[in-house]
Structure formats: structure tokens, C-alpha cells
Amino acid sequence: MLEQVAAAVDMIEETQERQNISACVQILAGLRFEKDLIRQLFREEIMRESVIYQDILQKGLQEGKQEGKQEEALTLILRLLTRRLGAIAPQIEQKIRVLLIAKLEDLGVDALCAASRRVALLDFSSETDLISWLDTHSYE
Fold it and tell me: Is the pTM of the predicted complex or chain greater than 0.85?
């Protein structure tokens, strides 16, 4: 049956329409058929040119960039805290790991802004100061 659908898609003359329908069929076929079978029956370059595929790809790239940004901010903050306070207790590190990127950036900005009215990361003198900052900022 999938072979018949692939043959019907190949017969569509208008390129953009063929690419979009092919992409839709391949996505739906992926719910039932093996990846290798789908690749055998459909040309991959048609899928790549589809606006639907491009949209899915762009969303994936955007999510990957956001995750990378989150990981970079987390790594920097943990390094700064470790340098300033020594080893961070696992339960405190876990609280930091669940902060959203905006809160991680706030923590980092507080680290760099000596004139900040809030407690700055580099001004933390103890783990208690860090816990206080996390309690104040975690749920805003």
C-alpha cells in the first residue's frame, strides 16, 4: 500500500505540491513503517525541500540552540559558584539546574554587577547566601 502511495506522489507534476505531500506522507508513514522502507520508497531530497520538513527542522534547530544556551549558562554559573564557594552541595546544584535560562542569566548578571542592589554572586561569602538567592529567585 505504501508503494502505491509513493507512486501516486511521484506522479504529482507541481514540484512544491509534490514535496509537501511527500513530506506529509513520510511523516505519517513513520508512525507505522520502518525508516528504511520509507527511505527506499521516497527520495530524501524531496523531503528536504519540503516547507513542512524545513519548518520541523527549524524548530529542532531552535530548540537545540536554546538547550545549548541553557547548558552554557549553567556551566558558567556552576564554575563561578564553585570557584567562590567551593564544592556545591548536590541538592543546591539541583536547584540551580532547574532554573530557567532567564534566572540563570539573572544569577550571572548579579555576579558581574558590583553596583547591583541585590546580593551579587561574587559577593556570596557562604552557601547560605546562595541558598537565600535561590529561594528568592527560583519561583518568580
Answer: no
